[in-house]
Structure formats: structure tokens, C-alpha cells
Design a protein that fits this description.
The protein has 88 residues and is α+β, with helices and mostly antiparallel strands. Helix content is 23%, strand content 25%. The chain is built from two helices and four strands. A four-stranded antiparallel β-sheet has the order 1-2-3-4, with helices on one face. The protein is globular, with a radius of gyration of 13 Å.
Length: 88
């Protein structure tokens, strides 16, 4: 895993995440299902917001220990995030 925070346009990433829509129910999380994945760690209104994206998993976690919310547009979000990331 690599920290690429200083290599990403954070304003562009923020714009993408602002449009992320989540489902209202909580789900469990068993770990990554694919080799390539993205973890976005953030803060919204003084609480943690973590977004987990891979080829089959698109989740947002608000750190409330209730589980994670599936993202409706997760696949599209992942593709857009990949374009912002530096080449490996």
C-alpha cells in the first residue's frame, strides 16, 4: 500500500466524493476482493469518513461501528479516482 496524498489533486478528488451517493443500510466488510484497491481516509464535520473501493467493493464508513454503507455509484467513482492517481 502506498500513500499518494501529495500526488493527487485533492480538490478534484473532493469534487468526486461530494457526488458519491450511499445506500441507507449498513453492511459488514470482509476485506478486499481484488488486487487493486483504494482507501480514502477523510474527515467530515469532525468525524472520520473512510471510503473503500476495489473492483467489487464500494463502501463508506463513518466510524460509528454500525457497519458500512454501500455506494450507489461506486464503480463509476472508482474509475474516476483511478484517473487521478499516479501511475504505479
Amino acid at each position: 500500500m502506498a500513500d499518494v496524498t501529495d500526488q493527487v489533486g485533492l480538490e478534484a478528488l473532493s469534487d468526486l466524493l461530494r457526488d458519491a451517493k450511499r445506500m441507507g443500510y449498513h453492511v459488514g466488510y470482509d476485506g478486499w476482493s481484488g488486487m487493486r484497491h483504494v482507501t480514502i481516509l477523510g474527515i467530515e464535520r469532525e468525524r472520520p469518513v473512510n471510503i473503500y473501493l476495489d473492483e467489487e467493493t464500494y463502501l463508506v464508513d463513518y466510524g460509528d461501528f454500525l457497519g458500512m454503507h454501500p455506494l450507489l455509484n461506486g464503480e463509476e467513482l472508482l474509475e474516476q479516482v483511478w484517473t487521478l492517481l499516479p501511475e504505479p
